[in-house]
TrEMBL record:
Residue ranges that the Swiss-Prot or TrEMBL entry lists as coiled coil: none
Region described as Disordered: spans on this chain: 48-75
SMART domains cross-referenced by the UniProt entry: LRR_RI (SM00368)
InterPro entries linked to this entry: Leu-rich_rpt, LRR-containing_regulator
Species, as recorded: Nitzschia inconspicua
Entry's transmembrane regions: 12-31
One Pfam family it belongs to: LRR_6
Protein name: Leucine rich repeat LRR-containing protein
Signal peptide interval: none
Keywords noted in UniProt: Membrane, Repeat, Transmembrane, Transmembrane helix
UniProt biased composition (Acidic residues): 60-75
Length: 491
């Protein structure tokens, strides 16, 4: 008879090990969740879920209603539909607070005459707070009308220009630059080609407009000159709290320019640099900016090329005075070195409460090093480590968690499907937890403890048996303080 180890049995073994470590963790979690530690496991079954968390929830004031009735009216041309929309706007209907002009499937050009009709209609409206132009071309002439629209006092607080080309963006920027007391607080410019003159207009707007609270500037094409104009604007800006620069292919040079501009500005609170293209130099620039900046509370660096050295630089910024509370580092490459550096930095820094580093090529060494620092971390409340299938890594983290008193949320991505048997790690933890529940601390107290307290402790130790019925906690307490028995008997 031949004994053959096939590929499938090997992978089955790996799978089982993975399942067991997940099961250990889960069982342990169920055991302790309501007891000594206050932490919560958020295990997601979908390891491909690598999305960046929303930076800040969009301000929602109650119900929304919008005009989006073009979709099914096959017969109606854009012209007719647009006319109808403008009539409704002119009618000042209080139920319409959002106007969305999304030309999904046709390449529509909004020319001067159309934009004029809309701008005139808006003169009579006081209820539309959000104006959205998507996927169309805004011509030069129309841009002038858009500028006019923005320069009149009105209720529009959110302006969105996605995929509209440069002219529209320039018009919006100039409009907001020339009318600094405009009602617009949130500006989204996404998926546009920002040439030098448009970037210059954006910079001018950032410089002179103090009402703008959020600038969403993602997925644009912008060159080095444009970055310089934007940076100059940011340098002089006052008031912007949220800046989203994700997906702009910003490299080390561009990131450094932007960070230099942000060093002294204390109003900015949220910065997103997700999905750009910077590495060590960019990370160092961010680190040096964070060290000196006093306002930024949340930074997103999802999906860049931050390696161990970059991770160390970022961790180093936490050792200094820094206002940062949240750092999202998912989908980079900080590795074991980076994880260790963050662990060490968080032993001294207490301001950072949320750290995410899933998908960063961190092995069990890195997680162990991080785990070793956990008992001394006094600030971190939420940790996202991502996938792991390595029992040694789990043990490292668990060991640290055993003496950490702060973490309330631990996020992992693991395929969870069954609960396996207990491991020795889990058995050991279970034992210490039952001992603690039985008042293990009195073992260290003076021998002159009141008899009623001992009686209570012994009773609890007897109740907190091993699940197999073995009174191991009671046994441990009696063995540690044999004189308790004598003392009780003598009385
Ligand atoms: C914009 O319109 C073009 C066609 O004009 C289309 O291919 C593209 O998918 C649209 N984009 C969005 C986001 O709807
Ligand atoms: C229009 O804006 C000016 C400042 O630009 C302001 O003084 C005035 O009160 C505003 N009027 C209305 C009706 O909002
Ligand atoms: C960085 O990006 C800018 C703007 O796209 C570009 O001009 C510059 O050549 C890039 N630098 C490097 C080193 O790739
Ligand atoms: C931003 O930086 C400029 C130049 O250093 C400075 O004058 C301005 O006061 C800063 N703004 C804020 C809000 O700190
Ligand atoms: C840290 O902040 C405090 C108070 O804001 C300040 O006095 C101190 O100089 C800062 N230290 C450093 C190294 O920046
Ligand atoms: C158990 O209690 C002791 C003190 O009695 C404490 O030092 C230890 O951290 C506790 N263990 C756990 C897992 O909470
Ligand atoms: C807020 C906070 O805890 N900041 C600390 C970060 O780390 C440095 C270096 O040890 C401390 O000096 C700060 O107090």
């Amino acid at each position: 008879m031949r004994l053959q180890l096939s590929r499938s049995s090997i992978s089955l073994f790996v799978w089982r090990t993975a399942m067991q470590c997940v099961a250990v963790f889960l069982t342990w979690f169920l055991l302790v969740r309501d007891q000594i530690f206050q932490w919560r496991l958020v295990a997601s079954g979908d390891p491909t879920d690598t999305s960046s968390p929303a930076m800040v929830p969009e301000a929602q004031d109650g119900e929304e209603s919008s005009i989006e009735e073009n979709e099914n009216d096959e017969d109606e041309s854009f012209e007719v539909w647009f006319q109808r929309i403008c009539e409704a706007v002119k009618g000042n209907d209080p139920d319409i607070d959002e106007l969305q002009l999304d030309c999904k499937d046709e390449s529509v050009t909004l020319d001067e005459s159309k934009m004029k009709v809309l701008a005139d209609a808006m003169e009579h409206n006081q209820y539309v707070t959000s104006l959205i132009f998507q996927n169309m071309t805004i011509e030069g002439g129309a841009a002038a009308q858009l500028k006019r629209l923005l320069q009149t006092n009105r209720s529009v607080t959110t302006l969105t220009l996605d995929e509209v080309g440069g002219e529209g963006c320039m018009a919006a920027s100039i409009g907001l630059a020339l009318h600094p007391s405009s009602s617009v607080r949130i500006l989204h410019l996404r998926d546009n080609v920002i040439d030098e003159s448009t970037a210059q207009a954006c910079g001018l707007m950032l410089k002179s407009n103090r009402q703008l609270v959020k600038l969403g500037f993602s997925h644009n094409t912008i060159d080095a000159e444009g970055i310089s104009h934007l940076s100059l604007g940011l340098l002089a800006n006052r008031g912007l709290k949220i800046l989203d620069l994700s997906g702009n292919r910003l490299n080390d040079t561009s990131i450094s320019k932007i960070c230099n501009a942000l060093v002294h500005n204390d109003s900015l609170e949220h910065l997103s640099l997700d999905f750009n293209n910077f590495g060590v130099v960019g990370s160092q620039a961010i680190s040096s900016m964070l060290r000196r900046n006093r306002g930024i509370r949340e930074i997103h660096l999802f999906g860049n090329s931050i390696n161990g050295e970059g991770g160390q630089a970022l961790a180093e910024s936490l050792r200094h005075n820094c206002s940062l509370k949240t750092m999202i580092l998912s989908l980079n490459n900080i590795g074991d070195e980076g994880a260790k550096a963050f662990g060490e930095a968080l032993k001294v820094n207490t301001t950072l409460t949320k750290l995410w580093f899933p998908s960063n090529v961190i092995g069990h060494q890195g997680l162990h090093a991080f785990g070793d620092c956990l008992p001394l971390m006094k600030g971190l409340e939420e940790l996202h480590v991502g996938d792991f299938f390595d029992l040694a890594a789990v043990e490292g983290l668990l060991k640290g968690l055993k003496r950490n008193t702060r973490i309330v949320t631990l996020r992992m991505q693991s395929p969870i499907s069954e609960i396996g048997g207990l491991s020795s790690v889990e058995e050991e933890m279970d034992f210490y937890l039952r001992l603690n529940k039985s008042g293990r601390s009195i073992l260290q107290s003076s021998p002159k403890m009141s008899l009623s307290l001992w009686a209570l402790a012994l009773e609890k130790a007897n109740q907190n048996k091993h699940h197999a019925g073995n009174p191991d906690a009671l046994y441990h307490i009696l063995r540690s303080k044999p004189d308790v028995m004598e003392f009780s008997i003598r009385r």
